[in-house]
Amino acid sequence: MACGIDIGGSGVKSALVDLTTGTFIGERVRIDTPEEATPEAVAGVCRQLLEQLQVGDDVPVGVALPAPIVHGTVPFMANLDKSWTGVNLTELMREHLGRPVTGLNDADAAGLAEVAFGAAKDVPGTIIVTTLGTGIGSAVIVDGTLVPNTELGHLEIDGYDAESQASAGQRTAQDLSWKKWAKRLQRYYAHVEMLFSPDLFVVGGGVSRKHEKYLPLLDLKTPIVPAQLLNTAGIVGAAYQASRTRTS
Ligand code: BGC
């Protein structure tokens, strides 16, 4: 058993996870992301969540953040408070939670969860998991090994940051039809496919629930399937990684 915390733009969510099945033990708890989502404010929310779940000191805790985490530190933050830049997540959480945590990127967490328990379970080769939300997150996993912090949502395509054109958030913000949005996804996935020649794409994020509206419109050589864990993937992946990399 381990605990996962998933920090998102609208909510911070946590649960205890059974690592044999990748399912929650008990309920998931959630607190709105503070309006000013500074590192201190968010760490305070994480502490409250651990208290609500009564997570014991011996339980590994993983924290997923919507930013790359390079040796514990956040080099830049695209869609949460900019004051996260340069923060050492591991030290921040140790101060506020009084225990060691494992920090990782949110899409990396989702990717690990899909490989361990979901749509990419037992699939050999190169798997690319993308999460379509406010931004575009990516996880590249090769024969079970994660290449962390790939940030493929920020590929520059046709002069634009890819997520500023093709994220699910942009579909809503620009009121795009599924067909128009699928055209943008086509451009995006075809480019990633050309660069990586993956064996499988897995599409996560809230909008993967509506996959039948846009996945059939895509024309790629690579199989592309919806994620299976949906909104539990970030928490499950964070818990999974914490249990594998526990430090004291
Ligand atoms: C961030 C990534 C994150 C993705 C999804 C991007 O803007 O740079 O780190 O994984 O959004 O949240």
Q: What would you note in describing this structure?
A:
- With 248 residues, the protein is of the alpha/beta class.
- It is 31% helix and 25% strand.
- The protein has two domains: 2-106 and 232-246, Nucleotidyltransferase, domain 5 (2-Layer Sandwich), CATH 3.30.420; 121-226, Nucleotidyltransferase, domain 5.
- The protein has a five-stranded mixed β-sheet with strand order 3-2-1-4-5, sandwiched between helices. It has a five-stranded mixed β-sheet with strand order 8-7-6-11-12, with helices on one face.
- Helix 1 (39-53) crosses helix 2 (89-97) and helix 3 packs across helix 7.
- The radius of gyration is 17 Å and the shape is globular.
- The two termini are 17 Å apart.
- The model has no long low-confidence stretch (mean pLDDT 97).
- The structure holds beta-D-glucopyranose (BGC).
- Residues 66-68, 78-79, 105-107, 131, 133, 135, 137, 151, 153, 163 line the site of beta-D-glucopyranose.
- GO terms for molecular function: transferase activity.
- InterPro entries: ATPase_NBD, ROK.
- Belongs to the ROK (NagC/XylR) family.
- This is Polyphosphate--glucose phosphotransferase.
Could you name the key traits of this structure?
globular, five-stranded mixed sheet, binds beta-D-glucopyranose, 248 residues, 7 helices, Nucleotidyltransferase, domain 5, 12 strands, alpha/beta
Tally of helical segments: 7
Number of domains: 2
CATH class (first level) name of the largest domain: Alpha Beta
Assigned CATH superfamily of the largest domain: ATPase, nucleotide binding domain
The overall strand count is 12
Small-molecule binders here are: beta-D-glucopyranose
Q: Which spans of ≥5 residues are poorly predicted at pLDDT below 50?
A: none
**Strand-residue proportion:** 25-35%
In CATH terms, what is the architecture of the largest domain? 2-Layer Sandwich
Helical content stands at 25-40%
CATH topology name of the largest domain, in short, is Nucleotidyltransferase, domain 5
Any idea what the radius of gyration is?
17 Å
List the helices and strands in order.
Answer: EEEHEHEHEEEEEHHHEEH
Mean pLDDT: 97
Q: How many strands, what sense, and barrel or not for the largest sheet? A: 5 strands, mixed
| Outline | globular
Alpha-carbon distance between the two ends: 17 Å
Structural class: alpha/beta
Organism: Actinomyces johnsonii F0542
Keywords: Transferase
InterPro entries: ATPase_NBD (IPR043129), ROK (IPR000600)
Family: Belongs to the ROK (NagC/XylR) family.
